[in-house]
Amino acid sequence: MIALVRLAGRAASRSRVGIAAAAAPPPVGLSVQRRRAFQGVRMETGGSKGGRGALVVLEGLDRSGKTSQCARLLSFLKGKGYNAEGWRFPDRATSVGQMISSYLANDSQLDDRTIHLLFSANRWEKRALMESKLLSGTTLIVDRYSYSGVAFSAAKGLDIEWCKAPENGLIAPDLVIYLDVQPEKAAERGGYGGERYEKIEFQKKVAEHYHSLRDSTWKVTQFLQESPR
């Protein structure tokens, strides 16, 4: 836990003094940087006194402990005086998110490509608010992001480059923390199997694709809490 909070704190601190641009001509306050997972938009220093907030993403298999760690990181950062919020994808409060929620609960059936695009749309519908929050100095701790969308859909057999394409232009994280938990271990946690993707063999495939998406922004840690997510 200590290692995770230090990483998040460093990312938030770096964002206060700005991050160099990677390409031009970008929109004001943004720069484009090619990533292995997708062509993300790297944000520069915002206009607030303390600089912009950091985008910290936690990724991992289902029931790997992401939600618990997001809550702990958020509590830590707030305790250190950072303006921080916790986000989660899919955001099931939106109309698109409600369609995704129904699908994950096995209450509806959708083509694999259709659900992939819905997951991506769910991130896109929050993009403007995300940019506004970051530029105003709010650090965001996000439970799942584009990497989940790519890894899970590629695990179904969809072409990985096709899976990456809808993510192009979303804001690139400053830090990705990957909770590296064996699928068998995650399956021992309470409530496992309640949603569509919570099957050990499928989660093994997801883990393989996560591995292929790792880049220099990723920090991998083996950590598992007793709480369900």
TrEMBL record:
PROSITE patterns: THYMIDYLATE_KINASE (PS01331). SUPFAM superfamilies: P-loop containing nucleoside triphosphate hydrolases. Coiled coil: none annotated. GO terms for biological process: dTDP biosynthetic process. Its EC number is 2.7.4.9. The keyword Lyase does not apply. Pathway: Pyrimidine metabolism; dTTP biosynthesis. InterPro entries: P-loop_NTPase (IPR027417), Thymidylate_kin-like_dom (IPR039430), Thymidylate_kin_CS (IPR018095), Thymidylate_kinase (IPR018094). Belongs to the thymidylate kinase family. The lineage of its organism: Eukaryota, Viridiplantae, Streptophyta, Embryophyta, Tracheophyta. It comes from the Eukaryota. The keyword Transferase applies. Residues 58-218 form the Thymidylate kinase-like domain. Keywords: ATP-binding, Kinase, Nucleotide biosynthesis, Nucleotide-binding, Transferase. This is Thymidylate kinase. GO terms for molecular function: ATP binding; dTMP kinase activity. It holds the Pfam family Thymidylate_kin.
